[in-house]
């Protein structure tokens, strides 16, 4: 009898997950049609579409939490390493190298372009460092101390807030590339959307594993990517205002992403002892993003 109840519950969860997946796909198609009706400047529209693609990737990644509450640690670490590889390749091939070319295009020599990009990169890394210090010092206990409900540990909320904050540089990178009319803006958006899938899954699984309801964990995981289209459109507008903002914006986004990868994602992927799998995932993600960047640009 108990096995029959569990089987029925499993079928219902599967139907819920499938229905949610179809709903997300349908919503994405409606958004694509809606974007076509907006009277936006082409580069702004491109940034909005790229950011929305990444938000959809995050939402799709959160769907499996409706069926499962956890995944093998080795798989999670491999996916984390994969995401790190994608972001490292995007930093090099989609941000730093085009940033150097853009700096030379506005009149800087090779030394001057290198200095400008280095300044922007270090400034972006420093800004995210300051954000990370504020997030790490957060005390979100008040958010979860509700009588009669499971108390999610503060460290879990800190982890979730940190990932949401780290989505901002990804949206910035998409917006700067699209706003500057870079030829590889679409491949950059696709690569970031790809690495956002395991990111959304990790957030949802962490919350569900800590005692939160499946659907609520899914909603939070899916919503964590909404900062990306906002950051993309804002940065696309900024780089369209001044020509010099394009190389600086690319460098700033590169520095921010580089710090996130080296300080958060890579150490987290190796924290459970699966460093070989995490490194293998990183190499695969790096190569995949490199191929996408060169083939689609």
From TrEMBL:
Signal peptide: none annotated. This is ZIP family metal transporter. Belongs to the ZIP transporter (TC 2.A.5) family. Keywords: Cell membrane, Membrane, Transmembrane, Transmembrane helix, Zinc. The chain crosses the membrane at residues 12-38, 50-67, 79-99, 111-131, 152-168, 188-210, 217-239, 245-265, 277-296. It comes from the Bacteria. It comes from Pseudomonas qingdaonensis. Pfam families: Zip. It is a multi-pass membrane protein. It is found in: Cell membrane. Its main location: membrane.
């Amino acid at each position: 009898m108990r096995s029959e109840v569990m089987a029925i519950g499993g079928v219902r969860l599967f139907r819920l997950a499938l229905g949610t997946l179809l709903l997300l796909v349908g919503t994405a198609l409606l958004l694509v049609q809606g974007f076509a009706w907006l009277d936006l400047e082409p580069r702004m529209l491109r940034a909005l579409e790229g950011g929305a693609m990444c938000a959809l990737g995050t939402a799709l990644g959160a769907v499996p939490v409706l069926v499962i509450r956890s995944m093998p640690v080795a798989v999670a670490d491999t996916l984390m390493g994969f995401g790190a590889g994608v972001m490292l390749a995007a930093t090099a091939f989609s941000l730093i190298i085009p940033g150097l070319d853009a700096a030379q295009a506005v009149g800087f020599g090779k030394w001057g372009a290198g200095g400008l990009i280095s300044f922007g990169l270090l400034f972006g890394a420093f800004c995210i460092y300051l954000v990370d210090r504020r997030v790490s010092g957060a005390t979100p206990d008040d958010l979860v101390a509700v009588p009669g409900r499971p108390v999610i540990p503060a460290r879990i909320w800190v982890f979730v807030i940190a990932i949401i904050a780290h989505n901002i540089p990804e949206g910035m990178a998409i917006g700067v590339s699209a706003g500057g009319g870079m030829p590889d803006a679409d491949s950059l958006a696709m690569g970031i959307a790809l690495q956002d899938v395991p990111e959304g899954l990790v957030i949802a699984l962490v919350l569900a594993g800590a005692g939160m309801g499946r659907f609520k964990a899914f909603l939070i995981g899916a919503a964590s990517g909404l900062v990306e289209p906002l950051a993309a459109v804002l940065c696309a507008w900024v780089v369209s205002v001044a020509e010099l903002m394009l190389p600086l914006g690319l460098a700033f986004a590169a520095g921010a992403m580089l710090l996130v990868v080296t300080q958060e994602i890579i150490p987290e992927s190796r924290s459970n002892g699966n460093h070989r799998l995490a490194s293998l995932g990183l190499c695969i993600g790096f190569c995949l993003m490199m191929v996408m960047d060169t083939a689609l640009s």
